[in-house]
Design goal:
Length: 225
């Protein structure tokens, strides 16, 4: 039997997730999905661009199916950053599958927004753990694992990495690559911007990157124990 499979998607219209789900169903794969619009002002009424999670061989919880949290860094227009999570019933009794997409930009203003967003994602992870959930979070963090700029003297991704990694982080999640690095996922600048973070119920097994054209991001595919 195929084990549970999870997918996180960024910058996707609601109808596109529906089409992916129909294609998978027609191929014999039964997936479930949740979508959360990240745009305070939708670019068009037919899109509802946002983040999505999909899962296979597991059920959404009868009690709680999905959450949408703001993660800060709201700027003007449609740059409205959020994190969507779905509660699942799998081999881990209480699991939340989450997707997020953080602000891009290398200037200090964008850096400050993204620093707050990363902190909020890490804090939401801790809060969910306190509720006895295990968490898998995937998405585009728009930052490399080890930040060369270090505005304020701290590495921006520290809150997402554990103290056991080198360089040491301040967080509680491991990353599917198994170390503070990995293959590039942004195929224009050739940098790793995409991640799959795991709480303590999971151990990284493998991570590969496959071409994602025409997108400017490639697919990060991970396996966990």
């Amino acid at each position: 039997m195929i084990g549970p499979a999870f997918v996180t998607i960024n910058e996707v219209c609601r109808w596109q997730v529906q089409e992916v789900n129909i294609g998978l169903r027609d191929a014999g794969y039964i997936y479930h999905w949740r979508h959360d619009s990240t745009q305070s002002i939708p670019d068009s009424p037919w899109c509802e661009k946002g983040n999505a999670v999909m899962w296979h061989n597991s059920r959404s919880s009868d009690a709680v199916s999905a959450y949408g949290w703001g993660v800060g860094g709201v700027t003007s227009g449609s740059d409205h950053r959020r994190m969507v999570c779905a509660s699942l019933e799998v081999s881990v009794p209480r699991l939340r599958l989450c997707a997020t997409h953080l602000s891009n930009g290398l200037d200090q203003d964008a850096y400050t927004r993204r620093t707050a967003q990363i902190f909020n994602v890490a804090n939401l992870t801790r809060l969910q753990l306190q509720e006895s959930y295990q968490i898998i979070t995937g998405g585009d963090f728009n930052q490399v694992p080890v930040d060369p700029q270090r505005y304020g003297g701290r590495d921006q991704m520290d809150p997402m990495y554990p103290t056991s990694y080198q360089p040491a982080g301040t967080g509680i999640t491991t990353e599917v690559s198994g170390w503070r690095g990995g293959f590039p996922t942004q195929n224009v600048v050739q940098k790793k911007y995409d991640y799959i973070f795991l709480t303590s119920a999971f151990s990284p097994a493998s991570a590969v990157v496959q071409p994602g054209h025409p997108s400017d991001h490639d697919y990060l595919i991970g396996s966990v124990w």
